[in-house]
Amino acid sequence: MSDVRTRVDFKVGQQSNIDAEIVSFHGLKTDKEHVAVIFKNADKMQAVPLVRMHSECLTGDVFHSSRCDCGEQLEETINLMGESGGIILYLRQEGRGIGLYNKIDAYRLQSQGMNTYEANNHLGFDDDLRDFTEAAQMLNALGITQVRLVTNNPKKISELSEYGINIIEVVNTSAHIKDGNKNYLKAKVCHGNHLLTV
Fold first, then answer.
1. Beta carbons of 68 and 59 less than 8 angstroms apart
2. DSSP string, 46-64
3. How far apart are CA 155 and CA 97, in angstroms?
4. What sections of 30-132 are H helices per DSSP?
5. Residue tagged active-site, from 128, 131, 148, 179
6. Mind listing the pLDDT tens digit for each residue in 10-60?
7. What 3-state DSSP class applies to 80?
8. What single DSSP character describes residue 31?
9. For the chain, which ranges sit under pLDDT 50?
10. pTM exceeds 0.85
11. Sheet holding 50-55, edge to edge
12. Active site residue 130
């Protein structure tokens, strides 16, 4: 059973007036260093908090890659939760779980015309290797059993439900279309059944 290890207040997002608390955990299924970012004490003040499971994306979150919409989804969620409260579970599962180096190899294949799923499959990986068990463990450690889940991804919805978290509502993110990511978004809809209009 996981439990909360450390809580630290900090500023988050591009707007310097958004306060949040970052929480680390121990006793999770793996040794990955996942964290929860909590806005407006949502774990204590909201009976059914907004929650987003956001998988780490160095290229999108930090370097604003044009190949994906990860950074934009994260920023949209930070702004939403900065106003309304909520919890971002920031999960260390780069490249749908294949890791950063393999993701860079997948980028090369995407440059040759493959979509993100085809590239991962070509490298010998399944469509999505992410496991959301630890997200459920993190929520349990925070005392949260029901959520309003911010996602477009049906895999996140079904897996979190399987792990005993009651999803009261699904809140979709916007379609963040930009030069370079339209085929990526179309693949998410056609291949991954994401709830997204492109």
1. yes
2. -SS-EEEEEE--IIIIIT-
3. 13
4. 42-45, 70-84, 100-111, 116-122
5. 128
6. 777 666 578 889 999 988 888 899 999 999 999 999 999 999 999 999 998
7. helix
8. S
9. none
10. yes
11. 3-11, 19-26, 35-39, 86-91, 50-55, 146-150, 166-171
12. yes
